[in-house]
Amino acid sequence: MKTKEKVINLLIANGEKEASVLLSLETGFVLGAEVHTNHVNMDNIAEFGFNDDSGIPIAKSSHIEHWKRREGAGFLDSFKPLNFETASKSFNFIAKTKTAVAKDTYFNIILIYKQ
Q1: pTM as predicted
Q2: How many CB atoms neighbour CB 93 within 10 A?
């Protein structure tokens, strides 16, 4: 099995507390994902999640630590498992914090596709 990566970038601008992007994904089967961020303020909880174009959650919004790559596992097992077919849908990716951020805060979402 071959794998392929898709990177999605979100930026919560200084003084804001949410960012989102609606986009269509390449047709395929998404095995899992991981999220990287420069957000370090643990008092200002950061969450990430995404929905399909009808508003149904593919991955419910959860603490950013839940999206980090897991240590000590094989390559595919180290990602947050998602296991969904993209079909011809669009997806809304959403990053948010409890309160406004004090600096530009990025979220890089890496989706792992099966080919």
Answers
A1: 0.89
A2: 24
Q: In the structure encoding, which two tokens stand for residue 37, read together? A: 């961020």
Domains of the chain: 3-114 (2.60.120.380)
| 3 state DSSP class of 44 | coil
Q: Give yes or no for a contact between 16 and 94, defined as CB atoms under 8 angstroms apart.
A: no
Q: Give, as one character, the DSSP assignment of residue 62.
A: E
Q: What's the rounded Cα separation, in Å, for the pair 81 and 112?
A: 10
* 6-27 tens-digit pLDDT: 999 999 999 999 999 999 998 8
CB 101 within 8 A of CB 11: no
Label residue 34 exposed, middle or buried (CB < 10 Å: 0-12, 13-18, 19+).
middle
* Cα distance between residue 64 and residue 47, in whole Å: 5
Q: Are 74 and 22 in contact (CB under 8 A)?
A: no
